Amino acid sequence: MEQQSIQREEWNSKLGFILAAVGSAVGLGNLWGFAYRSSQGGGAAFVLLYIFVVLVVGIPIFVAEFSLGRSTNTSAVLAPIKAAGKKWSALGFLFLIAPLAIASYYAVIMGWTADIFFQSLIVGLPETTSQAGELFNLIHNGTRDFVGQIFSLVLAFYIVSGGIRRGIEKLNKICMPILFIILLGLVIWAAFLGNAGEGYRNFLFNFDLSQLANPTTIRNAFSQAFFSLSLGIGIMITYASYLNKKNDLTKQAVQIASLDTAVGLMAGLITFPIIFTFGLNETISNSTIATLFITIPSGLGQYGLIGRLVAILFFGLAYIAAITSLISLIEIPVSALIDKFKIKRNRASGITIIFIFLLGIPSALSTDLLGDIDAIANVLLILGGFLVSFLIGWVIPKTLDKELTNSGSSLLTRNYLKFMLKYVTPVLVAWGLIISVYDLLKG
Ligand code: PHE
Asked: Which residues, in sequence order, are CB contacts of 294 under 8 Å at separation 6+?
């Protein structure tokens, strides 16, 4: 019996694993992070730098995390120790605190998302920016955001305790196709807005070369890449630990990174036309969080019934994107508890959820605190990414080779990734990390 309870689950299908990883990656970070960071960091310069980071840093780290997870067959918290000994327990610890920290405020923001969704569905939208601001004040003050936070955590508990196949994989198989359909529909709708062209220009074609040397733009590109791809935090290690040996890790890394980047770009193709059509460009650069929760509702509020319908779809989409990310964050400590203490999944999920709720109380009470925790957590992801690439590239390069060979990778791919993870990726991430820490402390 004991044997049965500790037997590790496996994904039902290759597609199930990819969708779960995409589900983790695609989240609120794509929908608001991309738009506001790009508006802060000179549009196209940010977008180009972001794509560069995804290609040179993101994809190799995906492969590194997958290799670590699949070879050790254990949760991210324990994997570094299993692979390279006790010295690496600090990395395991990082993979415990970073997901807990992010989940704690992520659930709060999800609560706001649910609130605006129901607001558009039942009551209607605010018509001016100041009304939208008042509404947002109501939402994120006092008891109201606890309701949404608890709702989201209970939902996540229900899914994660269902297990890999019957919980996480099943949810993603249902949600991801719906998400892509709504997203595509909204991109097409936004293309017909009055000032869509100006929105696109600011988002994609407003190229200011000097922005490439701006520390904030560099930090934004690294933070956005790690956060959006769910890297440097142990999720891809944990998800890959439920993988069988036959999957082609490199191919899947490219697929997941491409889908996630496509969603970020598509979200920009929705939000920028809305922002420029309704003359709201001032409001986005003022606040990080306001973009999604003040600007979008007040823009759509000027557009009558259709605007309301779009708001329902947009915030419904955001919620779907977010729940598939939240469960991945929760799965890391849950799988660690199961692996380490051999307790039942139900119990591990319950403990984790309660802990995340308590940890989220400061964020529910203060958006400033929430912003601070977010900024610090983002730097932790970059640190995690550096350590993982260093671990795989320098300490256990044989593991990478073996996993890639198992994946059926060609010699060229293998050599390319070994080279990148040794000489290119860690160096670039170290550079990004130093600039990010500098920029964080300066701010
Ligand atoms: N990638 C998710 C998003 O873009 C957030 C996330 C970050 C999820 C880190 C898991 C780990 O919203």
From this structure: 129, 132, 133, 136, 283, 287
Query: Cα(427) to centroid of ligand 1, in Å?
Result: 24
- Position 217, amino acid: T
Give pLDDT tens digits for 423-436: 999 999 999 999 99
Cα 403 to chain centroid distance, Å, stands at 25
For ligand 1, atom 6: residue with the closest CA: 230
27-80: pLDDT as tens digits: 999 988 887 788 777 678 899 999 999 999 999 999 999 999 999 999 999 999
Fold of 14-442: Amino acid/polyamine transporter I (1.20.1740)
φ and ψ at residue 371, rounded to 5 degrees: -60, -40
Mutational pocket test of ligand 1: of 227, 228, 263, 291, the residue with most ligand atoms within 8 Å of the beta carbon: 227
Instruction: State how far the Cα of 302 lies from the Cα of 221, in Å rounded to an integer.
Output: 32
For the chain, what are the domain ranges?
14-442
Q: Rounded to the nearest whole angstrom, what is the distance from the C-alpha of residue 325 to the centroid of ligand 1? A: 6
